[in-house]
Amino acid sequence: VVLKHAVRKVGLRAGAIAAAVLLADLLWPSRLFNYDGVACALAVLGGDLKTLVHGNHLIYGLVGAAFHGILDTLGAGWGPLTSLQLLSRLLGAASIAGLWCLLRWLFNDGRLAAGGALVAASAAWWWLWRQEAQVYPLGFAFILAAFAALLSYVRTGRVEFLYAGAAAHAGAVMSHVGHVMFLPAGLYLAAQGAGIGGGNRAAGIPVYRMGAYLLTVAGLVIAAYGVVIAVILRFTEVAAVWHWFLGNAAGPPEAGGGVSWHTALGGVWRGPGDSLIAWRDLFWGRPAHLEVPVPGWSSAVARLGTGVSQLLLAAMACFGFLGIGRLR
Question: I need a labelling partner for 310 at 20 to 30 A (CA). Which of 14, 22, 280, 284 fits?
């Protein structure tokens, strides 16, 4: 009974955090319309599998198409771009709540966990990509799952957690190839789990567990890409595969693709100074750049929603830093 009550209490708090993040995001719909998201929405609209699978983010288009299909079946009646933006917001809110659960588990301090989660929720770039039809919220959800599984492996030594973490990491890489950067952390935790923890502690030399983790991630990713290339795309030349993998949602290189995805409000990112400028512009400088009135709302109501959203995010940041201050 006590355990059920504790689980219910944690679940309610996690739900409240997710609801607060989702509310802040929904109050300020974006019209930045990142071209990756627009390209994916067009692919969903076209319904051609060949355009849904992308060399840099293999499964995002498929997940987005499935999500839009569910909403369309339920009678949502809006276009795929709106569905993809909603998917980002839902994944983002759920991931922030998951991060709170993970931090609470690690530090056994609810306020410290809330501080870390709310700082993450109010971070300028993480906030921005939650508003857009983008691949990163999907990848972050997978990375968070991988991290949780690997920490469970470290604490218990149960090898199934190692393979669950590797599978989640593979999902993140298939969401965006950039998530391969989690590999050093994954390998480190794999090595730690081989010699630390109680229960059914995993036997073996750490390097073997690191190898098992690496081979599982690589094997799943290579297998998925192999199936897509052989069954969906049906490429017969290595050059065609390489061309597809290097292109981005703006098109193949010779058609003007290969453009940097890292833009700061329409300009090319040139360094840390641009991030500070972007933070200022996102919160206080040019709200009209991202604001779009919700259908049926008056301009005044839309402005009010924008202001409330900014205040909520600012409050999240303030309470977050106060929570993190408990580390001192």
Answer: 14
Mind listing the pLDDT tens digit for each residue in 269-323?
Answer: 455 555 555 555 544 444 433 344 344 444 555 555 555 655 666 666 565 555 5
The Cα–Cα gap between 10 and 258 comes to 44
Structure confidence at residue 308 (pLDDT): 61
- From residue 258, give the alpha-carbon distance in Å to each of 132, 134, 172, 180, 263: 20, 17, 22, 20, 13
Is 66 exposed, middle or buried (CB count within 10 Å of its CB: 0-12, 13-18, 19+)?
middle
Packed helices 183-193 and 159-175: angle between N→C axes, nearest 10 degrees: 180
| 233 or 311: which leads in pLDDT | 233
- Amino acid at residue number 232: I
> Is residue 197 within 8 Å of 155, Cβ to Cβ?
yes
Instruction: Determine the Cα–Cα distance for residues 224 and 27; give it in Å rounded to an integer.
Output: 37
Cα–Cα distance, 231 to 234 (Å, whole number): 6
Beta bridge partners of 181: none
* Closest CA relative to residue 143, chosen from 173, 104, 163: 173
For residue 9, what are its two tokens? Answer: 């209490």
Question: What one-character DSSP code corresponds to residue 233?
Answer: I
Using an 8 Å Cβ cutoff, are 20 and 312 in contact? yes
Q: Are 161 and 152 in contact (CB under 8 A)?
A: yes
**Alpha carbons within 13 A on the beta-carbon side of 213:** 32
In the chain, % helix, strand, coil (3-state, to 5) comes to 75, 0, 25
Distances (CA, A) of 272 to 78, 264, 269, 276, 279: 37, 11, 8, 7, 11
Q: Cα–Cα distance between 179 and 162 in angstroms, integer?
A: 18
Across the range 38-48, mean pLDDT stands at 86
pLDDT at 251: 42
